[in-house]
Design a protein that fits this description.
The structure holds two protein chains of two kinds.
Chain A: E1 14-21, E2 24-29, E3 33-38, E4 46-48, E5 57-63, E6 66-72, H1 73-77, E7 86-90, E8 95-99, E9 101-108, E10 110-112, H2 122-125, E11 126-132, E12 135-140, H3 148-181
Parallel strand pairs in A: 6-8
Antiparallel strand pairs in A: 1-2, 1-9, 3-7, 4-5, 5-6, 7-8, 11-12
Chain B: E1 10-17, E2 20-25, E3 29-33, E4 48-54, E5 57-62, H1 65-69, E6 78-86, E7 89-97, E8 102-106, E9 119-125, E10 128-133, H2 135-138, E11 154-156
Parallel strand pairs in B: 2-10
Antiparallel strand pairs in B: 1-2, 1-8, 3-6, 4-5, 6-7, 9-10
Classes of the chains: A alpha+beta, B mainly beta.
């Protein structure tokens, strides 16, 4: 009787979503994506926000007690603008990501750390690189789209807008009271 | 006449960029490969033009010609894959070259204080004076690398 040959454990894999931004392919872990929505579903719920130093964020969505900022992925990566069709709401972040579309869902078995030759902001953008079908795809970090400083700026901008709105409402009420007493 | 002791001799690989030749110590060379597809994705490290896939590894491509000869390469014949040290870690980096590479044994003259940071030394070979390249100064990398044990470069994914 032949001994059983030792079986090699199957490599662990991670489900990923391949998506396009301005024609460029990226990957994100499926577990990091809480929701995929059409861009039309944002109209009505998204509020405009203007922070001149952060042009990649133009809208904010209120979700419970949190504000989720809508990041234009093309602007974030410095790619040419392209019409966005979908939004990824990213889990455990306050980021929703505008993308062109989903290419496919697949799995990766190996993630290579970003080579150390890459030494600027991209180290915050990517978890690493993976090779799929003889193509190299960067795997994004869900929390790499907005730094804590950028979130602070956006939150401050929102609270300033709220303060300005409250002040305007008070002035309007005062003016109304004054006109009534006259 | 001075006879060089064999221990004074080191091995170098001569590489060609346009009309000029440069040297890298042979111990830093991984391999010489034919050009393959460069995969590009957004990043802000201008010295890196993209990555190639080689033996299952993803290797950054750094065109060092701009720094060394003043203009980028219009054509490339090979990629010389070198081993770049980052603290205690070593990673492969592909340098595009325009001609054949040559292995020589010779003595290196140490650089002077006035030499550029990318000059690790000088060689005299076949009537030419050739710069030996300091890869750490020539190719990009983080300014400080903690001397901790290196994590594995390739990781099995853990969902």
């Amino acid at each position: 009787m032949r001994p059983l040959s030792p079986t090699k454990p199957a490599p662990r894999s991670e489900q990923i979503i391949l998506f396009r931004v301005s024609g460029q392919l990226f990957a994100v872990s499926s577990a990091s994506v809480q929701e995929v929505r059409g861009i039309d579903s944002l109209s009505g719920v998204a509020k405009e926000i203007s922070q001149p130093s952060l042009r990649k964020v133009k809208h904010v969505v209120r979700r419970g007690e949190y504000s989720v900022y809508v990041v234009n992925a093309a602007m974030h990566f410095g790619l040419p603008p392209a019409p966005s069709a979908l939004v990824f709401v990213l889990r455990r972040t306050r980021t929703a990501l505008l993308i062109d579309g989903i290419e496919k869902m697949t799995s990766m078995t190996r993630l290579q750390a970003l080579p150390l030759a890459f030494c600027h902001e991209e180290r915050e953008w990517y978890r690493g690189l993976t090779a799929l079908d003889q193509t190299v795809v960067p795997v994004v970090k869900p929390d790499g789209f907005l730094t804590p400083e950028e979130l602070f700026l956006l939150d401050a901008s929102l609270s300033q807008e709220a303060d300005a709105k409250r002040a305007a409402e008070r002035i309007a009420e005062d003016e109304q009271d004054a006109s009534i007493t006259q | 006449m001075t006879l060089l002791n064999e221990t004074d001799l080191q091995s170098f690989v001569l590489l060609r960029l346009g009309d000029r030749r440069f040297a890298v110590t042979a111990t830093q060379i991984a391999e010489l490969v034919a050009p393959s597809r460069v995969f590009r994705f957004p990043h802000h490290t201008s010295e890196v033009e993209g990555v190639i896939l080689r033996r299952g590894r993803i290797v950054p491509v750094c065109d060092v010609a701009e720094k060394l000869i003043g203009n980028g390469l219009k054509s490339r014949r090979f990629y010389l894959i070198v081993q770049r040290r980052y603290g205690s870690q070593t990673e492969w980096v592909a340098l595009p070259v325009t001609g054949d590479c040559e292995l020589i044994n010779t003595e290196m003259t140490l650089p002077s204080d006035t030499d550029a940071p990318h000059v690790a030394g000088w060689l005299s070979h076949a009537g030419d004076v050739i710069e030996v390249l300091n890869l750490a100064a020539l190719t990009p990398g983080p300014t400080e690398i903690a001397p901790s044990p290196a994590p594995p470069q390739l990781q099995e994914v853990r969902p």
